[in-house]
Specification:
about 475 residues, mainly alpha, about 65% helix
Length: about 475
């Protein structure tokens, strides 16, 4: 009888399936407690502001369908977004997130949104972290960058309350940018890892990139265009070096472009003649830009000049460095040029161009800091001092204004509820509670009128379940 040699099959399923080989299961805790402290303080501040912020008219509008039926669950959100995609706007990613936040309890929503703001601050500031050195001074410098990014948001962003405290705006300017930054930071890490040790991307990470890239492409016109431009740069860098993960980046780019096409081909963007009015928007871009508040234009100009100065200094220090900071700078400029595609009523039309300029400056700052730690620390300290001086006087007013608004809002709410309880449903008279501080969510939002048929009055009536209200 012929004997066969025993075959020893020792299969490593992780290697065969290439299932997340980029994850190291050895836990290595390297926590920068300075950063944790800064983010904790920012979190407490945002929790206070969010807890003082009730539902305003912009939130109430999102709580109802076109037939004035209240949205109660995810199925209602999806059905409403189908209608909006066809008739209102193509921003279903941000709209869906806003819908989820609105059906959460107030305390949970406040907590989640405060965490989201801190995550956004950290993700932006991480572009400037110095990682080659692990000394306490470097950790303090990195924490200083986190604080600086927060102060830039607080002091420089026009209409802070409209941008970071109103639920629809939180979805649009916090959670959607987080989603987009997750895509490009992962693309960045994939390129760096491929060039460093040729590490392959696992299946789960590849699926994450493809799905989230589609959502990033469907985010917002000028944001998606900026993200696509940055992503092309990372594909080019991958093509120049190791090409092991090129397929992942290409599939993600195709997914992103698909999402962008879905957004731009929305029937809500089409005119009566059936043709997309993108070109009309582009031609009208100059007039729309001129209509922007000067604060918005000054913001873009300030951040762009700062990014250019840091870029020039970093290039002089290291002529052979990569072109990443230039790419983010150009992405900011391109994103700004395409704000003409945004709706006229956009709360903060230049937010994303400003973020791209900040990231460009932070990347340049990293190069400067790694070559001259003392110089970068002195510069950062000086800038922080200026912004802290601007921040301190505005903080008490912001907290007091929001707390006072909540008190007046609650008093008005009691009037409506008491009338409803007593069987009085029509022409309920309520006081005006206009917001005058830029750190309030309701700043600039309409407060109602003496006409019970005014759209604001109608949403207030529907929200409280009464027939009509009159704002004195």
């Amino acid at each position: 009888m012929k004997k066969f040699k025993k075959i020893n099959l020792n299969i490593n399923l992780k290697e065969v399936l290439n299932f997340m080989p980029d994850i190291d299961f050895n836990i290595n805790l390297n926590i920068n407690f300075f950063i944790v402290l800064v983010l904790f303080i920012v979190f407490l501040l945002m929790m206070a502001l969010n807890s003082y912020t009730p539902l305003i008219i912009d939130d109430m509008v999102r709580l109802f369908t076109k037939d004035m039926i209240r949205i109660e669950g995810i199925s209602d959100i999806i059905a409403n977004e189908k209608y909006k995609y066809a008739s209102v706007n193509p921003y279903q990613v941000g709209n869906f997130i806003a819908g989820i936040l609105l059906i959460l309890s107030d305390s949970i929503a406040d907590f989640v949104n405060s965490i989201g703001f801190c995550v956004l601050i950290y993700m932006i500031s991480s572009y400037g972290f110095i990682s080659k050195k692990k000394s306490s001074s470097v950790q303090l410098l990195n924490a200083g960058l986190v604080l600086l990014v927060f102060l830039l948001m607080w002091v420089s962003i026009p209409k802070f309350g409209n941008t970071f405290l109103m639920i629809p705006s939180i979805a649009k300017y916090v959670w959607v940018p987080i989603l987009c930054l997750l895509v490009i930071t992962n693309a960045r890490k994939i390129v760096i890892a491929s060039q460093a040790d040729g590490q392959m991307v696992g299946i789960c990470r590849m699926l994450f990139m493809i799905i989230f890239s589609f959502l990033a492409g469907w985010s917002q016109e000028n944001l998606a265009i900026g993200i696509i431009f940055i992503f092309l740069y990372y594909i080019f860098r991958s093509f120049e070096g190791e090409r092991k993960n090129m397929l992942v980046l290409i599939l993600s780019m195709l997914s992103m472009l698909t999402g962008f096409v879905v957004m731009m081909s929305s029937p809500s963007r089409r005119g009566a003649g059936g043709q997309s009015h993108v070109m009309g928007d582009l031609y009208a871009g100059a007039s729309k830009l001129s209509a922007f508040n000067n604060d918005f234009l000054n913001l873009v100009l300030l951040f762009m000049i700062a990014a250019i100065i840091l870029l020039v200094v970093s290039r002089l220090i290291n002529v052979e460095k990569n072109w990443e900071s230039e790419i983010y700078l150009l992405s900011g400029i391109i994103s700004f040029l395409f704000v003409s595609l945004l709706p006229i009523g956009d709360k903060n039309p230049v937010f994303m161009p400003a973020i791209f300029f900040i990231i460009s400056g932070l990347i340049s700052f990293t190069e400067i800091g790694e070559n001259n730690h003392i110089f970068s620390s002195v510069c950062l300290g000086f800038i922080l001092l200026i912004y802290v001086v601007l921040f301190i006087p505005s903080l008490p007013g912001a907290l007091t204004a929001n707390k006072d608004y909540l008190s007046r809002y609650s008093a008005r709410e009691i009037i409506i509820i008491d009338n409803r309880t007593n069987g009085h449903f029509e022409n309920i008279e309520i006081p005006s509670i206009g917001a005058k501080n830029t750190y309030m969510a309701a700043y600039g939002s309409p407060d109602g009128s003496n006409d019970p048929k005014y759209w604001v009055n109608q949403y207030i009536s529907k929200y409280y379940g009464v027939g009509s209200v009159l704002v004195r």
